[in-house]
Amino acid sequence: MVRDTPLAEAVVAEALVWVGTPYRHQGCRKGVGCDCLGLVRGVWQAVYGRELEHPGVYAADWSEAGEGDRLASAARRHFREKDMVDLAAGDLLLFRWRPHWPARHVGIAVGTDGFVHAYEGAAAVVRSPLVPQWRRRIAAVFAFPDS
């Protein structure tokens, strides 16, 4: 069993205070607006005191042709990839909508049974249960780095 670390606790606490932030494509401001990637960027900024790499312009549905798996590539540059069975509170979750498609959604685990994320259909950042429909879409799990 993985124990919560001060870093994981800080990530979860920050992610939870974003709940209710309105959905805004490419936004990353707590209480003002964010999308799923903006949520992760905002949590990173709050926890580390510095900005995560800027993602550049991206379509709301991440449907850019030929872009490869941009989310997974970026996550590997900044986070530590881990086995899905080791999923724990404070981890970054990447989701894909169909097998073999690139990841197109991200969230932050707040336990082994729930996560915080932003998506247009919810109109705001929400805490969702990690039910089988979400769990089977997990493409990768990453730990926030120690520094």
Please characterize this protein's 3D structure.
With 147 residues, the protein is of the alpha+beta class. It has four helices and eight strands, in the order αββααβββββαβ. It has helices at residues 6-17, 36-48, 70-78, 132-135, and strands at residues 28-29, 33-34, 80-82, 92-95, 105-111, 114-118, 125-129, 138-143. A six-stranded antiparallel β-sheet has the order 3-8-4-5-6-7. Strands 1-2 form a two-stranded antiparallel sheet. α1 crosses α2. It is globular, with a radius of gyration of 14 Å.
Write the layout of secondary structure elements.
Layout: H1 6-17, E1 28-29, E2 33-34, H2 36-48, H3 70-78, E3 80-82, E4 92-95, E5 105-111, E6 114-118, E7 125-129, H4 132-135, E8 138-143
Antiparallel strand pairs: 1-2, 3-8, 4-5, 4-8, 5-6, 6-7
Helix pairs in contact: 1-2
Key phrases:
single chain; 147 residues; alpha+beta; six-stranded antiparallel β-sheet; two-stranded antiparallel sheet; 4 helices; 8 strands; globular
The portion of residues assigned to helices is 25-40%
Q: What are the secondary-structure elements, in order, as H or E?
A: HEEHHEEEEEHE
- Low-confidence segments, ≥5 residues, pLDDT <50? none
Approximate strand percentage: 15-25%
The chain-level mean pLDDT equals: 91
Largest sheet geometry: 6 strands, antiparallel
Characterize this entry briefly.
Helix content is about 25%, strand content about 25%. With about 150 residues, it is an alpha+beta fold.
